[in-house]
């Protein structure tokens, strides 16, 4: 059944104000010891509403919702991610390893909303346990995936009553499509103190990106940052005609990095070579190195051309609730447990 969007514009910070719970009464009476949870009641109500609109979007698009194991024996080798051990296995940093095996088995359009885990990630926009939306579509590339991303966010905004304009941290953001597409090289030229080649040569790519470029992205309108250096897309297909560039993008709205999408690599021998390079980096840093995911690599040889995207639900809720910190949009932070 199609869900009908509520009409009219509502500021992001008040989208859930009509959802009254016992917490609202408790806040007035100060009758519960943990008043912080009373302040979160609006965010939690909107979060639940947002998840319903996400599921409606993919159901209407013919996607199958799947569930895959959270605890896995062998992860994908990614040097920039620190894993959390779980009784000899690890907690997944992403559902990608299992979802791509489902694609190889014949499923063409799948999505999942699940918990993902990354050690030592804690900050104003980071949690070691996060909620991730991940989806894949056979026959699409990162270009179509960017358009699908626009459609998803607009579907959610209209469903929540925000229309095509929201207010985040005091700045109005126009969500009307099409959104800007900006290459990484152009972003370095526009916002960085170094060019992209110079930043790569000096080992300062991540620093310039994180400190100089990302805070300036999507402040007034959403922007897709795309065409990353090949060495920053170990699971992405390289761009035809330019092997120095990976078909990868990230979406920024209000300075928040919301998602990370690829035209997926389905060349198993090439993926094996890239995994070996990631393992060498991990070994050089003294990080634990797991064996290669052989079942994944075997399945990859049968995976058709496709595109996939991982979107952080917690940050998306931050955007639609006008929250400055991720702590405001989850029921409990690690420190409260």
Q: Could you give me the name of the CATH homologous superfamily?
A: Bira Bifunctional Protein, Domain 2
* Beta-strand proportion: 15-25%
Computed Rg: 20 Å
Major pleated sheet: 9 strands, mixed
- The name CATH uses for the topology is BirA Bifunctional Protein, domain 2
CATH class descriptor name: Alpha Beta
Which stretches of 5+ consecutive residues score pLDDT under 50? 1-14, 16-27
Structural class from helices and strands?
alpha+beta
| End-to-end distance | 38 Å
Helix segment tally = 11
Number of domains: 1
Residues in helix, % = 25-40%
Q: Roughly what is the average pLDDT, rounded to an integer?
A: 91
Assign the CATH architecture: 2-Layer Sandwich
Give the structure's gist in a few sentences.
It contains eleven helices and 14 strands. By secondary structure, it is α+β, with helices and mostly antiparallel strands.
Task: Report on the architecture of this protein.
The chain has 337 residues and is of the alpha+beta class. Helix content is 34%, strand content 23%. The protein has helices at residues 22-29, 35-39, 41-60, 96-104, 142-159, 184-191, 196-201, 205-213, 268-284, 294-300, 313-321; strands at residues 64-65, 71-72, 84-86, 89-91, 109-117, 129-138, 165-168, 171-174, 180-183, 223-229, 238-239, 242-253, 256-263, 306-312. Strands 1, 5, 6, 9, 10, 11, 12, 13 and 14 form a 9-stranded mixed sheet that branches. Strands 2-4-3 form a 3-stranded antiparallel sheet, with no helix packed on it. A two-stranded antiparallel ribbon has the order 7-8. β7 and β8 (171-174) form a beta hairpin. α3 (41-60) crosses α5 and α4 packs parallel to α10. It starts with 21 loop residues before the first helix and ends in a 16-residue tail after the last helix. Mean pLDDT is 91; it is low at 1-14 and 16-27.
């Amino acid at each position: 059944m199609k869900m009908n969007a509520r009409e009219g514009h509502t500021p992001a910070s008040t989208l859930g104000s009509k959802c009254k719970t016992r917490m609202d009464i408790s806040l007035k009476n100060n009758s519960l010891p943990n008043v912080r949870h009373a302040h979160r009641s609006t965010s939690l109500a909107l979060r639940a509403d947002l998840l319903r609109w996400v599921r409606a979007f993919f159901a209407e698009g013919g996607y199958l919702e799947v569930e895959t194991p959270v605890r896995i024996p062998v992860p994908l080798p990614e040097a920039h991610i620190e894993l959390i051990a779980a009784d000899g296995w690890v907690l997944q940093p992403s559902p990608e390893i299992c979802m791509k095996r489902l694609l190889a088995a014949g499923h063409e359009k799948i999505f999942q909303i699940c918990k993902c885990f990354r050690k030592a990630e804690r900050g104003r926009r980071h949690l070691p346990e996060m909620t991730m939306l991940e989806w894949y579509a056979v026959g699409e590339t990162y270009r179509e995936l960017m358009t699908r991303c626009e459609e998803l966010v607009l579907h959610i905004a209209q469903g929540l009553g925000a229309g095509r304009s929201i207010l985040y941290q005091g700045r109005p953001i126009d969500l009307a499509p099409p959104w800007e597409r900006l290459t990484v090289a152009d972003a370095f030229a526009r916002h960085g103190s170094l060019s992209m080649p110079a930043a790569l040569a000096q080992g300062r790519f991540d620093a310039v990106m994180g400190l100089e470029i990302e805070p300036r992205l999507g402040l007034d309108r959403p922007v897709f940052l795309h065409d990353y250096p090949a060495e920053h897309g170990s699971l992405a297909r390289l761009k035809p005609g330019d092997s120095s560039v990976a078909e990868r993008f990230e979406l920024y709205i209000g300075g928040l990095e919301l998602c990370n999408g690829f035209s997926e690599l389905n060349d198993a021998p090439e993926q094996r070579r890239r995994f070996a390079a990631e393992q060498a980096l991990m070994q050089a840093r003294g990080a634990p190195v797991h064996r290669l995911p052989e079942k994944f690599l075997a399945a990859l040889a049968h995976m058709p051309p496709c595109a996939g995207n991982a979107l952080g639900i917690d940050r998306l809720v931050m955007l639609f609730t006008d929250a400055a910190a991720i702590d405001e949009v989850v029921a409990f932070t690690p420190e409260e447990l």
